[in-house]
Amino acid sequence: MTQRTEGGISGALERFSYQVTEWAGSTWAFIIALGITIVWATTGPIFGFSDAWQLVINTGTNIATLFDGIPYSAKPAQAKFDEKLTASHSIEEAQELHERKQVKRAGANSA
Question: How far apart are CA 51 and CA 36, in angstroms?
Answer without folding.
Answer: 18
